[in-house]
Design a protein that fits this description.
Order of helices and strands: HEHHEEH
Number of helices: 4
Radius of gyration: 18 Å
Largest sheet: 3 strands, antiparallel
Number of strands: 3
Helix content: 55-70%
Structural class: alpha+beta
Distance between the termini: 41 Å
Strand order of the largest sheet: 1-3-2
Shape: elongated
């Protein structure tokens, strides 16, 4: 989920519910999350200094917390993308059974 959040915040600053909506919209509905599972990840990213937050007043009584990708977050995003690509490539090699079927009698 960190990868998805950082990638979305690279586009623009967003608030929690907006991140939930953009996750679903940008993935064509294939990836969904609930706000309850999103916030622990956001808090961890904040603690790690990868993102920052700012409170914005919306109307008279409502405020939103917008999250912003920091330079350290951009670096971590690059690392996560590389890790994801490596793992995905390895999985595809396994499920495609490239090179034949080893170990079968």
């Amino acid at each position: 989920m960190s990868l998805v959040i950082l990638a979305l915040l690279k586009r623009e600053d967003m608030y929690g519910y907006q991140l939930v909506q953009e996750t679903a919209n940008s993935s064509g509905g294939k990836l969904t999350t609930q706000e309850g599972s999103l916030y622990p990840v956001l808090y961890r990213l904040l603690d790690q200094g990868l993102i920052s937050d700012r409170k914005v007043q919306v109307g008279k009584r409502m405020s939103r917390i917008y999250y912003h990708l920091e330079p350290a977050g951009e670096e971590r995003l690059r690392e996560l993308i590389q890790e994801y690509e490596d793992v995905t490539q390895g999985i595809f090699q396994i499920i495609r059974e490239e090179g034949g079927t080893h170990g079968q009698s």
